[in-house]
Amino acid sequence: MGMPVRIDDILYGQARAQAKAEHRTIAGQIEFWAKIGRAALDNPDLPIDFVRDLLVARAEGKSHSTPFVPEGHLESYTELFDLSFQEKEEI
Within a domain: residue 55? Predict the structure, then answer.
């Protein structure tokens, strides 16, 4: 449920510009900033960029994720990925 809130005109303008760039609504942008701020306050030892990236990654879901591949294991991962991709094509 939405609630009307008074905010500073400058903050509103910044939210509007950022929302347009990020393809969000203005309210969605302000909610995103609030989530980042809350997470940053709850985890002061984490860099703010890490907090932001984590929230973005969670919002994107697993379909857009890139699996972690340890250094030196790229070839075996590529073979496995190619095999599983071929199996999906056959189905």
Answer: yes
User: Residue 29: exposed, middle, or buried by beta-carbon count in 10 A (0-12, 13-18, 19+)?
Assistant: buried
**pTM surpassing 0.85?**
no
Average pLDDT over residues 9-26: 94
Q: Which domain holds residue 50?
A: 9-90
Residues 6 or more apart in contact with residue 55 via CB below 8 angstroms: 32, 35, 36, 39
Report how many domains make up the chain. Answer: 1
Helices (H) and strands (E) in the chain, counts: 4, 0
